[in-house]
Amino acid sequence: MKSNVGGIDKVLRIVVGAGLIGATVAGFLPVWGYIGAVPLLTGLLGWCPLYPLLGINTCPTKK
Asked: How many CA atoms lie within 13 A of 13 on its CB side?
């Protein structure tokens, strides 16, 4: 599993995912807010399963 999620992409995914889960726990969103686990996990792991299918890679190339 090669990393395909770059720095800014990671930060945004983690913030959005944690925000959705936090809002759900606080009662601002219904149970569907737990979908925030998906961007949170992809941000923490640095790998998105849809990116290879779409031919996207936001991770900078290491030389």
From this structure: 19
Cβ-in-10-Å burial (0-12, 13-18, 19+) of 58 comes to middle
Please give the model's pTM, rounded to 2 decimal places. 0.90
User: How far apart, in whole angstroms, are the C-alpha atoms of residue 55 and residue 34?
Assistant: 27
> What are the residue boundaries of the structural domains of the chain, listed by start?
7-47
For residue 58, report the phi and psi dihedrals to the nearest 5 degrees. Answer: -95, 0
Q: How many residues does the chain have?
A: 63
Q: What is d(CA 20, CA 11) in angstroms, rounded to the nearest whole number?
A: 14
At position 49, the amino acid (one-letter code) is P
Tens of pLDDT along the chain (63 residues) come to 889 999 999 999 999 999 999 999 999 999 999 999 999 999 999 999 999 999 999 998 765
